[in-house]
């Protein structure tokens, strides 16, 4: 079937569309450049030749982002389910962020083995839990902004199951909006009447719907808002994410600067050497062009020198230079701190970066995310939320029984390796080490960004030295080592054909699986009042079936779109 597709034409159109609409990633290369200099004092050089000197020069270029050439079939009812629970997860994260005892108890075992999470929790306790000080009081007056993404895979009977909930640096929203536009262009316009493209999409539809136990489409949601048509839906991620940043900045200005003619800025905290710059820049430009906010990009290392908090007001400001020589310096007040870095140990080179994170957190500026939101997205918290009664405890009377059931329905099997292990958790370990059912599980640490999980024999090798088995049962577990991990039920979404592109060229075709991410945005006041809460678009990532990991930036997956069926 793939051989019947007009691949050259499709790839050429996709690559051109990507170039015109910014579906690009930045690449860097370092070249050795020769520089010629004359040494007049070199008497030994009888020909007085020019001496050749070489130095390194780094250059950037842009290429088509990794994409799936055509969209991937996805059940309409399953997509609607993910959209519907997005605002519920937004509210849940905010409730978690102020549930100090739950976060501390849940992460107590993790911090013994994971210094990074330990440092985050220590800052959280110092700023939000311990008695208020003149330094920490401003953070407790700040609004809380979340730009989240909940990732799902189809599982048995095409029910969605949550892979993870990302609460910091949730990326690819802007590029995903452009990829959806590309796929609508290919399937609804240019190749709408191409028999080979139609047959390809139809076969993928049949392959996905076969995943239902009775062979029929999953039951439609009873929600009256299920108005998604067949095909690739509109993806509002770029507009919605920028809107949330705008609402947060505007509310900050109303609260703290109503009589000030100066307009604050939005600060993007970024990684040095970042290559996913186009996704970030698209969001930046949308925020500026649609809402009028100026954006400044700085790394944690730069902010260690540039950021400061006014001890009288809690206002966060950064010192900027008006020229390359830094002869003319000025300050800008920050309304919103938006993290696209700071989610992994590699972003903190030493104490300076941690001090910068603390300085930002201790201000009255709105953080996305604040430390509470960041910790709420850890894998251990995700596992703890799946325990019976956990959602009821966190949400209390702010959620109905139906809403709690809707959240619980998307949880996959999650198992602890800490001191809170239950018999069910031990049975999962037994299944791996005794029954050799390692293909049914994945071992996850508290990390974001892709490439950190353990599968198959690697998972067995990681577990085995720290687990004692007696009479084919788990007798003991070294929680001090394994407590930072969780076990998760491995999900097996239906396979379908895909053609993947890298650098604008066809990488290959074959059986693939996909993962759907739903963005959600929320703004809450310091008293917990919800000022903004909505679904904010989608992301789909597609990879060949034999690939375990799934990050686009990490080089495992490609950006795609759901073709609703």
Write up this protein:
The protein is α+β, with helices and mostly antiparallel strands. 36% of the residues lie in helices and 27% in strands. The protein has helices spanning 7-21, 76-97, 100-107, 110-113, 115-129, 173-190, 195-209, 237-256, 277-291, 300-306, 351-361, 371-376, 379-385, 390-395, 401-409, 423-433, 456-463, 479-482; strands at residues 24-37, 51-64, 67-68, 72-74, 144-154, 160-166, 265-269, 295-298, 307-309, 316-321, 329-339, 366-368, 414-416, 441-444, 467-470, 473-477, 486-489, 496-502, 505-524, 530-544, 558-560, 562-564. The strands form six sheets. Strands 3, 5, 6, 18, 19, 20 and 21 form a seven-stranded antiparallel beta sheet that branches. Helix 6 (173-190) packs antiparallel against helix 8 (237-256), helix 8 packs across helix 9 (277-291) and helix 10 (300-306) packs across helix 11 (351-361). The protein is globular. The model is unreliable at 37-41 and 219-225 (pLDDT under 50).
Shape: globular
Strand % is 25-35%
**Which blocks of ≥5 consecutive residues have pLDDT under 50?**
37-41, 219-225
Structural class: alpha+beta
Q: Helicity, in percent?
A: 25-40%
Largest sheet: 7 strands, antiparallel
Number of strands: 22
Distance between the termini: 20 Å
Mean pLDDT value: 92
Output the number of helix runs.
18
What radius of gyration results from the CA coordinates? 25 Å
